[in-house]
Amino acid sequence: MSEAGEALAKWLGMDRRPDPPGPVLLTVGGLLMLAAMVIAIADPWKVVVLLVSVAVIAAAFARPTWVILFLALYSPFEPFLLKFVPDNLYIYARYFSEGLIYILLVSVALRLFVRDRRLVATPLDLPFVFFILVALTSIIVNAVPPVYGLLGVRQIIRFILLFFLTVYLDPDTPFIKRVTNFMFVIVLFQGVLGFLQSVIGAPLDEFLIPSERKFYESIQLTTGTTQFWSPGSRVFATLGRYDQLGTFLCFFFLLAVGLIYCTKQREDRRRLLVPILVALPAFILTLSRASWFGFALAFFVIGAVLMKDSKVRFAYAGAVALALIYLGVTGITVRYLVDYPEQTVAERFFEAFSYERWRGEYYGLGRLFWIVQTPLVVVRSSPLFGVGPGQFGGGAVAALGNTAVYEKLNLPFGVYGTGGYIDNNWFSLWGETGTLGLAFYAWMIFALAWMALTVMRESKDPYVKGLALGYFGCVLAVSFQAFLATYFEVRTIALYLWLYGSFVYVLARREKIYA
Q1: Alpha carbons 424 and 175: distance in angstroms, whole number
Q2: Contact, 148 vs 400, CB < 8 A?
Q3: Among 390, 418, 416, CA closest to 405
Q4: Cross-strand bridge partners of residue 219
Q5: Residue 222: beta bridge partners?
Q6: What are the two backbone dihedrals, phi and then psi, of residue 244, each rounded to the nearest 5 degrees?
Q7: Predicted structure pTM score
Q8: What is the pLDDT of residues 279-294, one digit of tens each?
Q9: Beta-carbon neighbour count of residue 134 at 10 Å?
Q10: Is residue 237 within 8 Å of residue 195, measured between CB atoms?
Q11: Which among 489, 504, 380, 509 is positioned nearest to 159, based on CA atoms?
């Protein structure tokens, strides 16, 4: 490190010493405390925001891995906790977790500068840079208002940034194991709470569900959740929606499965089975087909294909046989099944293959309508660069209420004509960033999967091998689920997709699998 960098590192409190933060943080803290006293006169609640901000900034500079741990533990509870935030603080609370990522970005950038560290090459570098270039080109080509365009790009890449930040922070192996163990405890909690929902019903549903919409001026901060299902029939615990609980459990079930396959100690396998067995009833009771089918696909690839487990192959063959027998005995006419509030687990499963449901989805402006119309109308209007970030199909256009492209192309405003989003993340990316943007985003997802597969095959450490195997299944599951909703953008699943990708890469570098 140069003398100038050394001096700056010392001043910033980033010189790897466990001492209190350097003068710059103490100075900033003092100024913010002074501001707090002034603000307290006008709005005492905002003092809380200010003090939390000081603590977070100090942690991001002094102990950035603590921020990563907090993000991982906080995200499953965020939809529930936001219910209790006063309106005048809601915008701060809503973007608090995302703001932590940007604070980490500044912290990591300063660390790279003051320590003269080399940039770390990752499998995502090239496709990420190309994707950003395509997205920015799309903004220019389509003359998208800069605010809308940049908010659209931010909606897509905010959690991808976490991959790069964690790689540069290079957390040690005990930290990664600690985060994973904490997450399995949360899986246990969510599983138990979800099961209690099915038993208690309406009173617990009403307490947990975040039903109220929140706005900041014309921007919709959250849509809330409309409970169109019967109380207790679909469980969601603290994650706000049944599909968010389902995809969250699916992700960590698959990590546990990978670790079980590769762990040599029988006691460790039993311990890893506990969160799966305890949370499995809640997973089923979510009635989330995206979660079920995503898990079924990934588990089959892990067990039957990669690990060549004959028991898994036999179980899947048996499940198909049982489904056919069930149809024969009950006489269910699959083609006429439709969704209704008191739907059973079996009906919910078979309804996915119902012609009547598909027909209703298309003419009701649901997911199937957009699967047809996106390539025929939206992509056709701008095949290479799309219609622009924040203009079609994703969370940004829904939050902004931006109807410009829909009106121009004579299309309804998203699902059911009112939502803005189209319940298909791959096609929303295709529409917004064009075929080039979709190709580079798919390249990033493929790079994650290939990295996990490589680490699983080459690692000598059973834990690393198991985590990589489970993560490979997670990438498959989330990639499939992204055809059914905007899961690449959902905080309760997207954060973990990119975070655990960075964990696998960090562990692989430690074993010299990647230079």
Answers
A1: 34
A2: yes
A3: 390
A4: 216
A5: 214
A6: -70, -40
A7: 0.90
A8: 999 999 999 999 999 9
A9: 24
A10: no
A11: 489
